[in-house]
Amino acid sequence: MDTTQTTHISLCAGYGGIDIGLKRAIPSLRTIAFSEIEAFACANLVAKMEAGLLDAAPIWTDLKTFPWGQFCDRVDILSGGYPCQPFSAAGKRLGTEDPRHLWPYIASGIRVMRPRICFFENVEGHITLGLRAVIEELESMGYAVSWGIFSAVEVGAPHQRKRVFILAHCLRERRQLQDWWKQSAIPLFIGNGSSRGIEWPTRPGQPQHQWEPPRVVGNSEIGEDNGREFRNLDEATRQGGCGDNAIDGSSNGKNRKWQTQPPLGGTPNGIAGGMDYAELCVSCDNRTDELRLLGNGVVPATAEKAFRTLMEKLL
After folding, report:
1. Which tens digit of pLDDT belongs to each residue from 174-230?
2. What phi and psi, each to the nearest 5 degrees, are found at residue 132?
């Protein structure tokens, strides 16, 4: 494997949580293609590309017709959070009978593409439904497989979000992978690494920790006084509530529109503060789509920890 550039394809990318987590562990990571069917998620990925948070790459909207053969022996890491509905306890748990079951398409694609490493994520309910079949199929293709449960709270997030992560590497390239991992990975807890021992997230108005995901915020007017806006939130509410004409109470005396509902992980004035950052880089008022995207997403720090842990275990 090339230590100067690690090629990566992201399936069922969502808002790119796995991609951001992998990039933290492997600075040489270069995503060369995405696959995502949801229009809102695609728009979010494009917004992140424009903001420089993700690599600019084409987005294939139908995984079932993804051109696997064009990437044969050209991909170092294939990642994805394939649909959880067939396995989730919140659904009917139809497994292979669920029309949203995409693993068979991914498995056939792996046979054609032959990536060196596969890294997948799903809900905890996958353990009792479908996980064994995934592991056995990967092993039958010549991969060594490991898996584990990782949660967002482990990396300092204020929510649990337990997820199953599966990592598989090609057995025939084990030695090369060991050398690549030693040379390519950033040591843990350095740079944009783990949050161990540090409160997460920083409060609005305070400098962000180096390892925190950037605050890409929609529906807000953030200026030099963004910290002041938070401190004056109670005053603004007293003067006009959180409706369309509430006063922010800051010294500039301007009227500012406060949202009646906060964006993802935010507070009523629209500044992101507590979870992950699925917002578009431009204003977007579809809160339902935002919440759906966030609910299905992966916390980048969790993906990073899972990848590091499972790589160390396998290699």
Report:
1. 999 999 998 888 775 433 334 343 444 445 555 555 444 454 443 334 333 333 333
2. -60, -40
Residue 245 located in a structural domain? no
Q: pTM for this structure? A: 0.71
CB environment 7-23: b (16+ within 10 A), e (fewer): bbbbbbbbbbbbbbbbb
Q: Which of 213, 185, 276, 295 is nearest to 20 (CA)?
A: 213
The span from the CA of 31 to the CA of 181, in Å, is: 18
Burial class for 59, CB neighbours closer than 10 Å (0-12, 13-18, 19+): middle
pLDDT score of 296 = 83
pLDDT at 231 over 50: no
Q: Share the mean pLDDT of the chain.
A: 74
Token digits of residue 311: 């790589």
In a domain, 186, yes or no: yes
Question: Is 268 within a domain?
Answer: no
Element (H, E) at 60: strand 59-60
The domain total for the chain is: 1
CATH code of the domain in which 183 resides:
3.40.50.150
Please give the residue range of the domain that contains residue 119: 6-195+298-314
